[in-house]
Specification:
The protein is an alpha/beta fold. The chain contains 13 helices and 14 strands. The protein has two domains: 22-112 and 119-258, 3-Layer(aba) Sandwich (Aspartate Aminotransferase, domain 2), CATH 3.40.640; 260-380, Aspartate Aminotransferase, domain 1. Helix content is 39%, strand content 15%. The strands form four sheets. It has a seven-stranded mixed β-sheet, sandwiched between helices. The chain has a three-stranded antiparallel β-sheet with strand order 12-13-14. A two-stranded antiparallel sheet has the order 6-7. Helix 7 (149-159) links the parallel strand 4 (134-137) and strand 5 (162-166). The model has no long low-confidence stretch (mean pLDDT 97).
Length: 381
Amino acid sequence: MQKPLNKSMRPVKMLDLHAQYLRFKDEIDAAIAGVLARTDFIGGQDVRTFEQELAAYHGASFAISCANGTDALQIALMAMELPPGSEVITPGFSYAAIAEMCLLIGLKPVYCDVDPETYLMNTSEVEALITPNTRVIAPVHLFGQTAPMEAIMEIARKHNLLVLEDNAQAIGSEYTFSSGKTLKAGNIGHISTTSFFPSKNLGCYGDGGAIITSDETLARRCKMIANHGQSVKYIHEIIGMNSRLDTLQAAVLRVKLPKLNGFIQERQTAAAFYDKALSGIAGLHLPKRTQNSTHVFHQYCITLESAAMREGLQEALKQHEIPSMIYYPVPLYKQKAYHQDIHLPVSEDLSQRIMALPMGTDMDEEQLNFIVTTIKQYFNN
């Protein structure tokens, strides 16, 4: 039997936010103290500067911060001024936020299947879903890789559609086109959104989100929508909402943004360790890297041969105090809130077999060895 968790080893977490905080404690504490000293808690100096820095990081013209990633999606969709009932093509295997926001503002999500190896939007199915009501293609850069944006942009141009990138899980990923041109995820479509939820690769210490675009009209509308539809105080030009990134969170993000590429490298190192240690295990399939995209490993998701094998492995890990997660156990169109009577075979199959292993910036070799040894032991029994 595998020995119990070593008392001297740091406990294994899905993501060790405390360890990351301790590395940069002095910088983060000073940034927070600066906000407290200035008392500019709403719309403060750090918010404005962070927006500029975030846009520059993406190579985009504008970044509009807001309260969270889901608000970012709502704001972006509202800024497009879509007719009621407009259709938005998006993956059926994903988090609920896009479907939720579409339905909330009177749009219709149209679900497409995903690639069985990359889990990203299957572009070969998109055109068949386009109708006269289609207005938007909304790919999700799932688990840390950029969706096949070259094909998506070609389809969008052909059919005069807008492209909304959900980049909550792949900030920092880079996509290379067949021409050799490279762009950051989130700066390829007409507009993109991201989340700064604490577990994200660039996470704050509460909630936060942002919209990225180089379209001046969309940017202006997004900024107004996030601020009650006003560009001048008390003058409301359009219907908006109240969605703000507070200055304390912006201060934390300003400390962490310059470190993001380093965070990505640490995640890639952990992923490479998993790849090497777990390759060749019958019944366990490793995440595939796409040819055109770097992978920033928001999650390291494996697939198992069957649901029973996944359940068994999860239990074996649990017995050794090793966490795991299932992203996502039910496809969107099978959820009660978003139900549609359709069948997407890959999405339904993945939901039964996929599982995420611990992944983060501060995983040491002892922890990684403990995880992979426990997994190997399960398969050797």
